[in-house]
Amino acid sequence: MKLFKSNCTTKVILTLNLALLILLSACEKKYVEITAQQELISDIEKLNQEVVEFEKIAEKSNDSKKIQQAFKKARLSYKKIEWAVEYFTPHPARFVNGPALDELEVAENTFIPPNGFQVIEEMIFPDYRLENKADLIRTIKILNGNFKQIQQHISAITISDAHILDASKMEINRILALGITGFDSPIAFQSIPEAASSLSSIGKLISKMNFESAESVQCENEINKLVNQAIHYCDSNSDFKTFDRAHFIKNFLNPISKKLVAFQKINKIENVDRNNVVNPKAITIFDKDAFDVNAFIPSEEYAYSADKATLGKQLFYENALSDDKTRSCSSCHNPEKAFTDGLKTNQSLTGSNLNRNTPTLTYASLQNAQFWDMRQLDLEKQSLDVITNKDEMHGNVANAIQLLSKDAAYQKLFKKAFPKSEKIEEWQVQNALASYIRSLNAFDSRFDKYMRGDSDDFTAEEKLGFNLFAGKAKCATCHFIPLFNGTVPPNYQKTEQEVIGTPADKNGKKISPDLGRYIQYQMPQLKNAFKTPSLRNVAVTAPYMHNGVYTTLEEVVDFYNKGGGVGLGIAVENQTLPADPLELNEKEIKALVAFMKTLTDKAYQ
Fold first, then answer.
1. Angle at which helices 117-124 and 64-88 pack, to 10 degrees?
2. Residues 6 or more apart in contact with residue 406 via CB below 8 angstroms
3. Which fold has domain 162-274?
4. Where are the domains of the chain?
5. Which is nearest to 535 in space by CA: 379, 359, 370?
6. pLDDT for 15-41, tens place per residue?
7. Full-prediction pTM beyond 0.85?
């Protein structure tokens, strides 16, 4: 009997221990950290719920403040997942938080109306108008549908550490170039709180990689510390107009970027195999070699090389490319004038004035379209266009090759640049000229050196000018930092055109008769549309605008300060530039001009 009781007791104890182990195991499972992908999906679900709640408020209430608060809450939540939405689902992302402008498919002569947060922002800020109610509800429903599509896609893919790190670096560049400039919050001015929300995801993402070496943990802690400091700075300085972007970039965004690169190196995380415009090894986006010109070439055989650039430089001064052997590329793109001609508009072979100003060739390689009207997609086609143009060079490349082939020096240069070729070909001439232009990106201005920490040569006035450029004056919403052209960061896959209403003359009574991109693609949105040019070396490349109408930077700033063509009183129905006055005072205009002068490369100072 005792033996029976003992066995029973043992069985009970064993059963209890087993139950305890199961319970403890279950408890442990509850606290297992979820993956970055699982948390991302959870955040998308939360955002969906907030968008649904936003829709309910829009349906039931006409209270402007309630509707605006629901909007702000939803977009702050979106900013937490922006890194993933933009990286993994770029197409629906365009219709979640893209500009409130038609998406143009110029080749098909069609357009897609905009949708998403920025469209909603225009409906409800600065004040909600009741006549927008139906459109508002419809737009919110579409927004919610896009998020469901995004959720399905992200649930189905595999997200690696390499993807997370690459997306994190891109998000830092997005915050720098778009987030803090007001690009996607042009009316509500919520850019700074939204930048803080975007930053909040970076530290969490790095922590979820679970690398355990002491060096990795230390780097991870340093990243989190910087992120928390950056968020605190945003929280303490949330006013859009007074936010010190120069300080924020130099003391927070650049150091975070450096630490992300260090973290990648410590843990031997591979680079993602993609066509990176930004060099994945670049410590910050301000590095001298941060941008890869080969990301803008037509195909691999056109890749840049120093030998091609050397040949291209020789061809750049070659008169044999023109019909009458009197003009070369350098005739209109003078290196001493930062590769411009200093004229209001270019001159034809016969000396008559043409319609457009000669743009600088510096940094021209970091664009997805060439010429003011964007009629050519790459520098190879651009060079052929100019050579064969009857007003500019009226040349024939095939005829020029016959002369070049007889020149021993050229034969040697071509063989070195294109060692696999038996003879000189037309594409090689184009590629060599384009390669020379691709060598003209110095990135050695005083601004570059200041941002890299190589120099403190930046006055208080210049710093104010930069903060105005990237803030109150809204220049950086079209001239994106750090290229200061219209190539859209952080992917740099698209170069934008704008309709700003440039006047025909300084009287400012009529718009320039040049229809710009509309001449090639006759869509009403493109009337008077021109490519957004680079502002690098802008202080030494006057006159300004496509028609050279303004001779000083002060005149240009005054034009924008008044609201472009519409602000001058010109009827420009399709103006993409906001027509509201910027309300810059004389001190601010002076500071803005002072900053733009810091963008001059060393060779032209």
1. 160
2. none
3. de novo design (two linked rop proteins) (1.20.1440)
4. 32-159, 162-274, 294-438, 458-604
5. 359
6. 445 444 444 545 444 445 688 999 999
7. yes
The whole-angstrom separation of Cα 81 and Cα 102 is 24
pLDDT digits (tens, 9 = 90+) for 70-114: 999 999 999 999 999 999 999 999 999 999 999 888 888 899 999
CATH class in words for 294-438: mainly alpha
Tokens of 517: 């991109």
**The amino acid at 595:** F
**DSSP string across 243-288:** --HHHHIIIIIHHHHHHHHHHHHHTTPPPP-S--SB-TT-SSTTST
Q: What is d(CA 334, CA 604) in angstroms, rounded to the nearest whole number?
A: 12
pLDDT at 393 over 80: yes
Q: Report which secondary-structure segment, H or E, holds 498.
A: strand 497-498
Cβ(314)–Cβ(413) under 8 Å? yes
pLDDT band at 356 (very low <50, low <70, confident <90, very high): very high
User: Looking at this protein, which amino acid is placed at residue 101?
Assistant: L
* Cβ neighbourhood burial of 272 (10 Å; 0-12, 13-18, 19+): middle
Q: Does domain 458-604 have CATH number 1.10.760.10?
A: yes
Q: Mean pLDDT across the stretch 110-130?
A: 95
pLDDT tens for each residue of 190-222: 999 999 999 999 989 998 888 989 999 999 999
Phi, psi angles (nearest 5°) of residue 27: -65, -40
**Whose structure tokens read 């070909």?**
425
Tell how strand 103-105 and strand 497-498 pair up: unpaired
Q: Which of 532, 550, 528 is nearest to 541 (CA)?
A: 550
Question: 513: helix, coil or strand?
Answer: coil
* Pair 43, 77: CB distance under 8 Å: yes
Contact between 153 and 183 (Cβ < 8 Å): no
Three-class SS of residue 305? coil
Share of the chain above pLDDT 90, in %: 90
Residue with tokens 């905009």: 114
